[in-house]
Amino acid sequence: MCGIFGVYGHKDAASLTYFGLYALQHRGEESAGIVTYGKKRIRQHQSMGLVNDVFDEKALRSLKGDAALGHVRYSTTGSSIAKNIQPFLVRHKKGHIAIAHNGNLTNAAHLRHGMEETGSIFQTTMDSEIIIHLLAKFRGKDYKESLLKALSQLEGAFSVVMLLNGTLIGARDSFGIRPLCLGKLDGAYVLASETCALDLIHAKYIRDIKPGEVVCIDKTGFKSIHLKSKTRPAHCIFEFIYFSRPDSDIYTKNVYLTRKRLGIQLAKESPVKADIVMPIPDSGNYAALGFAEESGLPFEAGMIRNHYVGRTFIQPTQHIRDFNVRIKLNPIKNVLKGKRVIIVEDSIVRGTTSKSRVKTLREAGAKEIHMRVSCPPIISPCYYGIDFPTEKELIASSRSVKQTRDFIGLDSLKYLSLDGMLNSMPLSKDKFCAACFNRNYPIKFSKRFKKSVFEKRR
Amino acid sequence: MCGIFGVYGHKDAASLTYFGLYALQHRGEESAGIVTYGKKRIRQHQSMGLVNDVFDEKALRSLKGDAALGHVRYSTTGSSIAKNIQPFLVRHKKGHIAIAHNGNLTNAAHLRHGMEETGSIFQTTMDSEIIIHLLAKFRGKDYKESLLKALSQLEGAFSVVMLLNGTLIGARDSFGIRPLCLGKLDGAYVLASETCALDLIHAKYIRDIKPGEVVCIDKTGFKSIHLKSKTRPAHCIFEFIYFSRPDSDIYTKNVYLTRKRLGIQLAKESPVKADIVMPIPDSGNYAALGFAEESGLPFEAGMIRNHYVGRTFIQPTQHIRDFNVRIKLNPIKNVLKGKRVIIVEDSIVRGTTSKSRVKTLREAGAKEIHMRVSCPPIISPCYYGIDFPTEKELIASSRSVKQTRDFIGLDSLKYLSLDGMLNSMPLSKDKFCAACFNRNYPIKFSKRFKKSVFEKRR
Amino acid sequence: MCGIFGVYGHKDAASLTYFGLYALQHRGEESAGIVTYGKKRIRQHQSMGLVNDVFDEKALRSLKGDAALGHVRYSTTGSSIAKNIQPFLVRHKKGHIAIAHNGNLTNAAHLRHGMEETGSIFQTTMDSEIIIHLLAKFRGKDYKESLLKALSQLEGAFSVVMLLNGTLIGARDSFGIRPLCLGKLDGAYVLASETCALDLIHAKYIRDIKPGEVVCIDKTGFKSIHLKSKTRPAHCIFEFIYFSRPDSDIYTKNVYLTRKRLGIQLAKESPVKADIVMPIPDSGNYAALGFAEESGLPFEAGMIRNHYVGRTFIQPTQHIRDFNVRIKLNPIKNVLKGKRVIIVEDSIVRGTTSKSRVKTLREAGAKEIHMRVSCPPIISPCYYGIDFPTEKELIASSRSVKQTRDFIGLDSLKYLSLDGMLNSMPLSKDKFCAACFNRNYPIKFSKRFKKSVFEKRR
Amino acid sequence: MCGIFGVYGHKDAASLTYFGLYALQHRGEESAGIVTYGKKRIRQHQSMGLVNDVFDEKALRSLKGDAALGHVRYSTTGSSIAKNIQPFLVRHKKGHIAIAHNGNLTNAAHLRHGMEETGSIFQTTMDSEIIIHLLAKFRGKDYKESLLKALSQLEGAFSVVMLLNGTLIGARDSFGIRPLCLGKLDGAYVLASETCALDLIHAKYIRDIKPGEVVCIDKTGFKSIHLKSKTRPAHCIFEFIYFSRPDSDIYTKNVYLTRKRLGIQLAKESPVKADIVMPIPDSGNYAALGFAEESGLPFEAGMIRNHYVGRTFIQPTQHIRDFNVRIKLNPIKNVLKGKRVIIVEDSIVRGTTSKSRVKTLREAGAKEIHMRVSCPPIISPCYYGIDFPTEKELIASSRSVKQTRDFIGLDSLKYLSLDGMLNSMPLSKDKFCAACFNRNYPIKFSKRFKKSVFEKRR
Hints:
Four copies of one chain form a homotetramer. Chain A is of the alpha+beta class. Chain A is built from 18 helices and 23 strands. The interface between A and B is large, with 61 and 61 residues.
């Protein structure tokens, strides 16, 4: 997963992009970068690390220009190296191309293989570089035509923001799998993965970029063109379940309210006698609020999250039981002791983390533990950009709900039903990709692709 | 404010102290330090920054020994320099003294002045250094006698942990103003500001150090001696209101449950017709839960906190309205639009932050905003270690509730009553210092002290 | 200018390369990098900075493998960015190519333009990338054939070391403009810009790589192939005058002894009555020794070099006269006072540095100052890799010797004659490129090239 | 050893001090610090590292004020820690004291012991802190009287620069063991260890601070007072032999010329048939020039020093013969092959370094190697600030010249005679301390002192 942001026509383009990335930090904690354009010069600053660490005032001041694009990157297995930081920028005889990409191409290996055969050199393992090579290859008189030609070669999920010789471009694949929205601020155009980035800079949300739409923004204004291929919405439903920020609107609808509705539906489907409802903070908070409201049971903060714990921390010298759970989440014994507890989780991936948490809650004195999950079992990987593990590692792909319950050590375990989830969505159910739950992938892909995906994983 | 931690008799003393400080990070974000003792050698590592930044594995490995003490320090005005990092360590002809201190002495200037007159040299502006000078001055044959003599000179609040030639010492002033608790792990003794530090390392909570008690732990075991001065509990009530972690037990009682009770009492005292109850996250969460439960109104997350925002961030180049609120807390318009909102705050200090937040909520569409505060108006400074501003800057010391309401821009504002607060406490009301609310300071102090305090502030 | 180094067949390949670069540091102070190959894996570490700053023990340990190549880079105008650090490495469907390059191609712009036309993407502004693109383009069954094909496209100066799928390759252009020598250590082959790098690791010097020769070293041993184009030696004479280390052998001959002979010849051609001979340390030391020996005048250290002064230092707040001279070189008044001084310089480029130094010597009390330069006037730029300024900035291209003397503020100024220089060389005079002195460039170049050179300069 | 610098009455005090320390860097490479005073505020910046690393423009800008003092520190065994960086600064009820010290007190342990008995606390192991404690102890109405009282307690060598409530003070022990000179620049006064620091900032040398003199510089001007104890010059002769910069004047006389005279005298005393004279660069350069001039033999650079080698470097993975010599000094085989070589060294301490160098020269082909040393054998430690090893480790204290010759592997070895050295000095022979050569220590010291010195060494 990644977060992308772009702005055109604002004298504080770099500063706005910096804050846009700040708001999108949850979409990628590994690296951050900004490219700006102004007075015919392109500038770039990027590094491994969080947005706040990568940029300081001096770096921002150096990023002159009134057009900018930025990217935050999530660490996916094996390629967590400095070279892969985005935006990807190429200077060229006839100018420059910079690109920030969110999503995953399913024909990347195929395209790359073909171009390497004819002597092309690739610097990185990123899909973004492939898009740039295609743009270079198809370059003609009319850059819009070239754009459509190049983007038409791509299969898979892509929401991209580009700077092409000073023109800001935003594009989304024909299925609109990853989000991308458009805003305005002081007359300037803004593109962002989520609306929370617009909110922070006080930009006004205009609309989403449509599936298959390519928008080009330059001195002459805003133009919208479209990929020729057939389009139909297949928005990633997992953005609503877990990935997006609760204060964002995604595919035009609010995330927090959706999550709360999932919790309400979950309480309707799978009630259980208990004393309290508690979330796994923070991702389970919102569905838990809905569950508590619907069930009439008291909502309690049974575990307190330590917000100082970063992504990594030193392991203790000696074994401390369930340390990795407790350093992040400390249970409150006085709340849990002798209680029948319902814990609400947003989703279960491998099940190992849940297992440790449940053990910790039992030690703190919980008498019964009933887990309620605000989505169905995840049974199949995502090939469009969510970093799930391989099918084998997904607990629900190989174990029944009962087996999973026993593995985690629960008194009861219930998932939200597929229909329950789809019906709780704020858009009609045919507008989503829910392939990770139902294996119904909207885009065909070759065997070679699957192979390459699994190889990358190893 | 500060957090202190000590351990005696454990081969992983440094590692345990590191995690103890990790758990106490909320008590001081400015600097961190650890001193260890083993095989007659004393070792030290400290720096400005969060615990996770100050220590790496190499540093921890170098901190050998089976006794250790640690400190996290809060930035108080004007003295935020490297020299003032604790623990404060002195190597001496006859050995060493290391000290970690939480609290504030009210006769520090007086003691220091006297010792400087006779040629003593002070390196820092810290109270801890004064305690060490007293220990050096009163040193006799029996270190316990010296200890009692030195500590008897101190007026004000102190919870301290010391290493004195390999003996771990814990002490608390005669009023027990700041917390300090005792735990055990694998036969080793542990001292900590709050029980959340014991929880993380899986140590068992034994009891609190008593007001006026001095405990000495060495090879020969655990001994408890007592200051001669009269003791009576006057525990800081603000630890319950705001400062301690909700999952901690303070003065033997749980913080989270106390905060929830404050919210329940608040709802009883000051109900109001509204659509939703929301907290200012995270510090207002727990009272808000109590308020919602008691009032029967739905609890909603009306603002989402961005957990990536550190203590400092770059300011935007151009003015963005209410930026400093919104970078930390983003309101969800779909939740707030047209609603009558009750917001629950733990406390109001200057009122300026509340004012900005309320403005942001109004812009997001809230129709009515009613603020409920889970403690009485703060009208007087704390001289025992809480970093409140001067009396003049405390909004409640110069404005009536009505004026404050108007300043913040509220439809209604209600504080919890003094009796309501005291009666919601888990200990009897005469066991607390509530001087910031009622000016009833348990310890007398000279004019010189007040003067020095205010001078430090400037 | 740059320094290159390679080793094949030694278990300490990275460590040896590190020391090789250490010895070649004078050829490039801006950045350093090493690529190693072993067990089918390629590894890379590089950064801006001196060799000692770029590598630490951890970095060296991570550079596993028994083949390695390294590069130190000199900062040339305008392209001093991290992206341009060498060795340049590309991972490819069929393997990898890494290259370290010393020299300057005169048809780089032409080659690049052609490849960009057909859709190639260039990441850097370095000649090395062009070589890699050519290798990718001409790749056939036999990599040796491809190599010769690709290298045949190049015009200009190149001494290169490459790793091509685990084979170490060394090559030199048909004129042998830049040096490259071959050594052996414990059965392993070593390639280096200068012999001082062999000395440091105690490798035995074998021979120079010949003009137009390509050597390939792999498991099967050492093979030598040759470019088809006609070859004739045109070794850069400036390596002897200034660039190489005095303890190196270049083109098989020692640098120190050559410089001393230049000083002897200079004393023969241009004697002058004086009290002392002094060098501008350290580059003028060796010719000054020869001059003093031949003239019978005492050699004195009239200026002492401060070896702590790095490439950059903070400028003083207020104006201090001739500060930038004196921070590096402090004159000794007691030596200079009232003396007639001969100062021996290796060369004069812009003349401005000499002017400041002479002023400083006058202030220190020198009565007469006679400058003797151990090469002829530099009148034309180098297009083969020496970073001279443009012709306009070369003082000798626009001013007569008399005008230069007056500009610098000398009592007399004499250059070594062209014949005097060539006859002092340890190889016959037709084996050198002395184009910077006589405009006799051995390689033709197009107008476009000249244009591109000057554009880069701006 | 250390370098000290002070300036009073100049708006660029910090910047001038920075450059002063730059010039004095050879006196201490471990740490650097500056303290400034202006508008009643004292400021400080210091760190481990070279001057150029410790200070940047921001640090210098922050060091406001028109009085400043600075210090560079040499790493002496065991106490190379951040706490010991100088200047040492204490803020005090009545003001501040900052001190930079060069030299070594012989009654430090005694003084410290006494003050600890009465309850004083010491932060560091530095002599400077003792001086500050004495100043605090003897503080009276008249600071000059206090100064004389405090400094009178000190035994041993001290050249100090102090800032005492805005007054700049310079003082030197009664024997004037370490150098300290006075200069003027734009009306401001400057104090420095060596004149090379005055040269760099273009200050005019006025005179040396006299033995036992204390100078006080403030708004009212320059005053000179004197310690009551008897004074007689006993200047450290080793400053001339090795320690000071050749371009400095020490004790009013030039170092370079003195070293050259030592070489001339050495050639007179101990001629030998040989082909060339070569120095061990850079410290042997100047005596070697004198030796070559007097002997009529050609001076050759037989070894080239690599100026990029810092104080530390990574050791090679595998054994490379004489690596630690060759990384710093590369012999030129063509110069040495078959030659009878005289190498001129400034001094021999342990003999181990010379041994390795001689081995390297033999391998490079030298036929005969004759070493000439420009001072007598060092037989006794320095207790006044030169960091010699213990007597046992000084090769000349336990081995005869013949044994030393064999240990090092020489064909012949000759030291300069004691009289030859003293007579070559530019001041009369009774003005020097030459105790390291003749055990004639000018200051008595107790057994306790010797013991403490040796303990520190372990």
